[in-house]
Amino acid sequence: MEGVERKGRRLLLIPLPLQGHINPMLHLAQILYSNAFSITILHTTFNSPDPSNYPHFNFSCIQEPSSLCLSQSSASHLLNFLLALNAQCVTPFQECVTKLLSEEPQPVACLISDALCYFTQGVADKLRLPRIVLRTGGVSSFVAFAAFPFLRLKGYIPIQVDS
């Protein structure tokens, strides 16, 4: 938004590189930008957002290993994709954030990451950055996750397979 004065408050946002997670993160970024925050979107090369659609944001690419690929993102391999992403992106993410912190004079107020990008917590702690988590799932997802402790207590999960 032109005419909105940036007040030296910069936010780093990192969505999970799947469309149902990228869109809500970009919507949040738009809202925060309209409230005078400077926005930097950190993204993987895999399924990266198009910076030309958001000319008022800065974009910085995390160079994840090439083994993180589209085939791992199919529904049947989603868990493998998430595990690989969280294992393989720690070092590239830390390098990217460290570089941004050293190059930009504007301090970072906060890191906002997708709940499924849990690798960001250790990096945020190490770099002493406050971190907020964005859950992109709907209320039914929230209710399902809230039921896990009860289901575990009752012995329903993990599912025991008879051999």
Describe the structure.
The chain is an alpha/beta fold and 163 residues long. It is 40% helix and 17% strand. The protein is built from five helices and five strands. It has helices at residues 19-34, 78-88, 90-103, 119-127, 139-153; strands spanning 10-14, 38-44, 58-62, 108-114, 131-134. The protein has a five-stranded parallel β-sheet, with helices on both faces. Strand 1, helix 1 (19-34) and strand 2 form a beta-alpha-beta unit. Helix 3 packs parallel to helix 4 (119-127). The protein is globular, with a radius of gyration of 18 Å. The mean pLDDT is 86.
Summarize the structure.
This protein is of the alpha/beta class and 163 residues long. It has 5 helices and 5 strands.
Radius of gyration: 18 Å
Helix content: 25-40%
Topology pattern, helix = H, strand = E: EHEEHHEHEH
Q: What's the number of extended β-strand segments?
A: 5
Describe the largest sheet.
5 strands, parallel
Shape: globular
Helix-strand makeup class: alpha/beta
How far apart the termini lie comes to 61 Å
Mean pLDDT: 86
